[in-house]
Amino acid sequence: QVQLVESGGGLVQAGGSLRLSCAASGRTFSNYGMGWFRQAPGKERDFVAFITSSGGFTYYADSVKGRFAMSRDNAKNTVYLQMNSLKPEDTAVYYCAATMNQYSNRYYSPQLYNYWGQGTQVSVSS
Question: Which of 29, 52, 71, 83 could bond 24 through an S-S bridge, CB–CB 3.0 to 4.6 Å?
Fold first, then answer.
């Protein structure tokens, strides 16, 4: 079992930045690939970013590529999402998730993930 707790959300103006954190506890964190997803009201949960267990590879949704950066610190059992140049369309609840199946090419699919956090709200005003 892995417990995930997100933090760092808030209200920011367009063009601003936020850094989300996801702290993990439970089983060996360094065994898991980690993802960030987001869900806006009335919409499906969408893939944002993924990082492999070692941190050696990252993948991003086209909508955030060049603006967001995902990283992890296995010594601190924490993953991060640095979000720059935020836009109103980035407004959503952001979730981190953990998967043992990090070598799957379906890292963008919520079904791949075994554990989820409770989410943190990000609101971007225009």
Answer: 29
